[in-house]
Amino acid sequence: MRPQDEDRPIDPGPAWLGPKASEEDEGKPAGRIAGGLSLRAVIPSAITAAAICAGLTGIRFGISGEWEKALLAILLAGLLDGIDGRIARLLNAQSRFGAEVDSLADSIDFGVAPALVLFMWSLQDLPRFGWFASLLFAICCVLRLARFNARIDLDEQPHKSAGYLTGVPAPVGAGLAFFPMYLWIASGEEMFRQPWLVAIWVVAMAVLMISNIATLSWKSFRPRRSIRLEAIAVAGLLFAALLTEPWWTLVVICAIYLALMPYAVWSYARVRRRRAERDADAEKKPVEPFDVTGVPR
């Protein structure tokens, strides 16, 4: 029996993951390649490698105290992470190797890099507890990714089946962890750099990543056809705002996401209640008797 090449797309099953663009995406199996590894199979993993380089470069900028560059490098890593899986599906180039590289990249870009940058920026001024807060964030990010990978083959996922996510995704958690840093750069106020304030915030974001609360996914946002043009206009304005006032725009985006979290919990509870009522009605519905021919009487 010929051993399976780890770079070769494999058939779907418990061993197949496929590189993901995010936790919301579901992979599709790719066929086997008759010859060697094609260029289209290399491109997604190359983008993932670029994301790793961006995350590590963010750490390098943090060491030299270039905080804006450090943030931009980690944000670039998040952007690359968001497109590598989609490109893999577009090129039909999913592989187990790409999935493993993607998961490792996420742990570096959204766990290790933010934890170290935040420690060098503020938490190092808080003896012991500041380092523990950074460690907790990195560990919770890795645990979240491990939980996602362990559940990828499970059929029973209540949050996912309803269009929600479990906890805050790793890229979003990293972005939210930098919230005090956005405010510090945008306003220049030193109060946002206070170690105790940053430590409490980082611990809270770490807990949210591994929590079991329902959070909104991109699939939850389905604008009506009547406001489609307005939605496109808002997206264009958001992009323009990121170019002209990036830090205040990121502050607003984080604030909106945090404000929508209670709504996500409430809306998922409503979905669960409707499902329970539907299941109860189905159990109460009498079974129609059949005659010997199998035809309802």
Automatic annotation (TrEMBL):
Pfam families: CDP-OH_P_tran_2, CDP-OH_P_transf
Presence of keyword Transmembrane helix: yes
Reactions listed under catalytic activity: a CDP-1,2-diacyl-sn-glycerol + L-serine = a 1,2-diacyl-sn-glycero-3-phospho-L-serine + CMP + H(+)
InterPro entries, per the entry: CDP-alcohol_PTase-I (IPR050324), CDP-diaglyc--ser_O-PTrfase (IPR004533), CDP-OH_P_trans (IPR000462), CDP-OH_P_trans_C (IPR012616), CDP-OH_PTrfase_TM_dom (IPR043130), CDP_ALCOHOL_P_TRANSF_CS (IPR048254)
Transmembrane region(s): 37-59, 129-150, 162-184, 196-215, 227-244, 250-269
Positions with biased composition (Basic and acidic residues): 1-10
Record bears the keyword Lipid metabolism: yes
Annotated GO MF terms: CDP-diacylglycerol-serine O-phosphatidyltransferase activity
Gene3D superfamilies cross-referenced by the UniProt entry: 1.20.120.1760
Domain CDP-alcohol phosphatidyltransferase C-terminal: 228-262
Superkingdom: Bacteria
GO-annotated cellular components: endomembrane system; membrane
EC number(s) from the headed UniProt entry: 2.7.8.8
Family annotation (NCBIfam families): pssA
Entry-linked PANTHER family: CDP-DIACYLGLYCEROL--GLYCEROL-3-PHOSPHATE 3-PHOSPHATIDYLTRANSFERASE-RELATED, CDP-DIACYLGLYCEROL--SERINE O-PHOSPHATIDYLTRANSFERASE
Family named by the database record: Belongs to the CDP-alcohol phosphatidyltransferase class-I family.
Record-given protein name: CDP-diacylglycerol--serine O-phosphatidyltransferase
Annotated organism of origin: Paraurantiacibacter namhicola
